[in-house]
Amino acid sequence: MVAIADTRARLDAEASVLERIATHAPLDEILDLLVTAVEAQLPGSLGSLLLLDPTTRTLHAGAVHSLPASYNEAIEGVAIGPDVGSCGTAAHLGRAVFVSDIATDPRWANYRDLALAHDLRACWSTPVLSRR
Question: What is the C-alpha separation between 35 and 126, in angstroms, rounded?
Fold first, then answer.
C-alpha cells in the first residue's frame, strides 16, 4: 500500500510541476516546487537548485529554502571548478557527482568546514542543462 501512495505522490508532484511550466509560472515557483517534491520523496534530505551564470561561471540560488541561510549566503556566487564541492564540480564537468562522505572527499576540501558546521554529510549533484 505504501508503494501505491508513493507512486501517487510522485505523479501528483510531476503533474503540478508540468502544470506550472505549461502555464508559464515564474521560474522560482517551478524550482521551489521541484525541490519540495524531491525532498518529500527522500525524507531527511535537504534539496536545492543552483543556477549557473554562463558568463561568470558562478552559481546562484535558484531554490535553496531548505538549506540554512548562512550556508546559502556562503556559497552564493561561487565559481565552478573541478574541486568545488559537489555542485560546483558537477556544473564544471557537466555530469553528476556523488559524494558519500563530505568529511573525506577531496572535492570538498575548501568547503568541508562550512558543510560539516551545517551538519551536511553527503551530497548528490546533477546538472540540468538547457539549450538556451
Answer: 13
Q: Where are the alpha helices (DSSP H) in the chain?
A: 2-22, 27-41, 69-75, 85-93, 112-117
Element (H, E) at 49: strand 49-53
Phi, psi values for residue 126, rounded to 5°: -130, 120
Residues 28-68 have pLDDT tens digits of: 899 899 898 888 888 889 999 999 999 999 999 999 989 99
Counting Cβ atoms within 10 Å, is residue 75 exposed (0-12), middle (13-18) or buried (19+)?
buried
CB atoms within 10 A of CB 25: 14
Domain ranges across the chain: 1-44, 46-132
